[in-house]
Amino acid sequence: MPAGGSAAAAVIAVAGALLEKAARLSVAQWASAEVALEQAHSLRLRAEELVDADAHAYLSFVEAMRAARGLRGQARERAVGQARAATVDVPLAITHLGAETVELAGELAAHGNPNLRADAMVAATLAAAAATAAARLISVNLSGTRRDARLDEAQKTARAAGDKADALEL
């Protein structure tokens, strides 16, 4: 059962696939296109893994919350703490992967096949949106808990990715 983080990771996988295409068709224009192709392929595979990881984290948290019914305070936190942590750690990984994808998209937009520049820009836009979505999930998943540095990290990373994607021009 996919959750919001799974959807964000799936969007990054689509962005990675667009970058794979752009890199594959940029070999004649850019000496580093083969390296970019390997990076795009790796980004896509990592995103696909995060689709499953997020679904697993969500289901584990739901199960832990059910098991913790009736518990209070530290006993409840011990019962759900590890599962809650995964609902933050996985979206944080998605946020970082989105930012990495935006970086590669920028490189392909700048150096790759000019006929595929728009595809690279779309990939950057999608990846930045996914990074923002994942950062928002962290905020929701941490609601009711004390301030967590991972939220600040995710928000900063997502903002930077969005700014870089927005800066790309045709």
What does this entry look like structurally?
With 170 residues, this protein is mainly α. It has a single domain, classed as Up-down Bundle (Four Helix Bundle (Hemerythrin (Met), subunit A)). Helices cover 82% and strands 0% of the residues. It has 5 helices and no strands. α1 packs parallel to α3, α2 runs antiparallel to α3 and α3 runs parallel beside α5. The chain is elongated, with a radius of gyration of 18 Å. The N and C termini lie far apart (38 Å). The mean pLDDT is 95.
Short account of what is shown:
By secondary structure, the protein is mainly alpha-helical.
| Low-confidence spans | none
Number of domains: 1
CATH homologous superfamily, by name?
Formiminotetrahydrofolate cyclodeaminase monomer, up-and-down helical bundle
Give the overall shape.
elongated
Largest sheet: none
Q: What is the terminal-to-terminal distance?
A: 38 Å
Give the strand tally. 0
For the residues shown, what is the average pLDDT? 95
Features:
Four Helix Bundle (Hemerythrin (Met), subunit A), 0% strand, mainly alpha, 170 residues, single chain, elongated, 82% helix
Topology:
Blueprint: H1 4-24, H2 33-67, H3 73-111, H4 117-141, H5 149-167
Helix pairs in contact: 1-2, 1-3, 1-4, 2-3, 3-4, 3-5, 4-5
